[in-house]
Amino acid sequence: MPEAAQLIQDALFERFGEHIAVDPALNGLDELARLAARGVCRRFLARDVSPELMHLLCACALSAPSKSDLQQGDILIVRENDRRERIADLLPSMPWVREAPVFLVFLANGRRVPQVAAMRGKPFPNDHLDLFFNATVDAAILLATFLRAAEAVGLGCCPISVIRDHAHAVSELLALPQKVIPVAGMCVGWPADKGRLTPRLSLATTVHEEYFDEGDLAGEIEAYDRRRAALCPYQDQRDPARFGRAAFYGWSEDKARQYAVPQRSDFGAFVRAQGFHLD
User: Fold this and answer.
1) Coil, helix or strand for 94?
2) Hey, CA dihedral for 161, 163, 164, 170, is it positive or negative?
3) CB atoms within 10 A of CB 31
4) Is the pTM of this model over 0.90?
5) Which of 44, 36, 39 is nearest to 20 (CA)?
6) What is the Cα–Cα distance from 15 to 228, expressed in whole angstroms?
7) I need a surface site. Which of 46, 82, 188, 275 has the fewest CB within 10 A?
C-alpha cells in the first residue's frame, strides 16, 4: 500500500476508532492524508508569515463556494502588535493568540449586498434571518478553506471561536460597521511542533444514510469517551468546585459541564445591535 494510503488509514483509525478502506489508486491521496492527520497548532516559531503569502492564501480561501455568489464572507488580517496584544488580553487562557505572528478574523458581512441593492436602485426585502445565516455560513466556509490552504504550505492554524465572548470589544477594536460581525478568529504561523490529532465521535454517530438515525447514542458516546481518554485524557476537570471530581472524566462530562453555564447569552443582542434582523 502506498505510504499516503497507509497514513490515511492509520490517522482515521486513531481519529474514529475504525478501519476505513482506502483505495491506493485514488487520486489526491496526499491531500487526503493532510486532512486525515491534521492537528490543531498552538505553538508557533518566532518567524514571520510574509504579506505576499497571506495575500495568496486569502485569495485561495476566497475562491471557495459562496451562497448564490453573494460573497458575504470577509477576512480581516491583524498584524499590528498593539492590536494583537489587545485581542490577546481578552483571551488570557489562550497564550497562543499572543504568540502567533498573524491573527485573522473571519467576518460575516451582511452589509455589502444591501449596499449593492441601493447602488442599483433596487429594493432589499430580505433583511431577515437568512441574511445573517448566509453571511455566517460564507464566513465559516472561508475559515475552513483558508485553514486547508495554509496547512498545505506548512503553516499551522488554530481557530478561535471564543472571540464571540467579546464580540462588542473585538468589533470596536476592528472598527466593524453595522451588519458586519466577527464569526471566529484564527492564529496563523509556522508550527513549533506537530499538532495533536484529536479523536472524533464515531462515524456511526455523525454520518447518516437516507434518514437521520441516532442509533445507540448513549453507547456510542460512552465508547468515544473511553477511546478518547486512552489517547488524550483531559489534564484537568472543568469547575470541580461546582461539579465535584468525577472518577472518570471524559469528553461528554467535559462538554456537559461546559454548557451547564450560560455562554454568550448576550450574543443575540449584539447581532441585533449590529443591524441584523433575526426574524
Assistant:
1) coil
2) negative
3) 12
4) yes
5) 36
6) 9
7) 82
CA 226, CA 70: separation in Å to the nearest integer?
A: 44
Q: Give the Cβ contact number of residue 78 at 10 Å.
A: 18
- Domain formed by 51-195, architecture: 3-Layer(aba) Sandwich (3.40)
By C-alpha distance, which of 67, 38, 9 is closest to 150?
A: 38
C-alpha grid cell, residue 201: 465521535
CA dihedral 108, 113, 118, 121 (to 10 degrees): -170
C-alpha cell at 177: 460597521
Element (H, E) at 252: helix 251-258
Residue ranges, CATH 3.40.109.10, the chain:
51-195
Spatial distance between the Cα atoms of 266 and 165, rounded to a whole number of angstroms: 9
Q: CA 40 from chain center: how many Å?
A: 10
Of 40, 239, 73, nearest to 150 by C-alpha is 40
Residues in contact with 223: Cβ distance below 8 Å, sequence separation at least 6, in sequence order = 17, 202
Q: How far apart are the first and last CA of the chain?
A: 54
Residue labelled with grid coordinates 447581532: 271
Distance CA 199, CA 232 (A): 8
Q: Which three cell numbers stand for residue 204?
A: 456511526
User: What pLDDT, in 10s, does the model give residues 113-126?
Assistant: 999 999 999 999 99
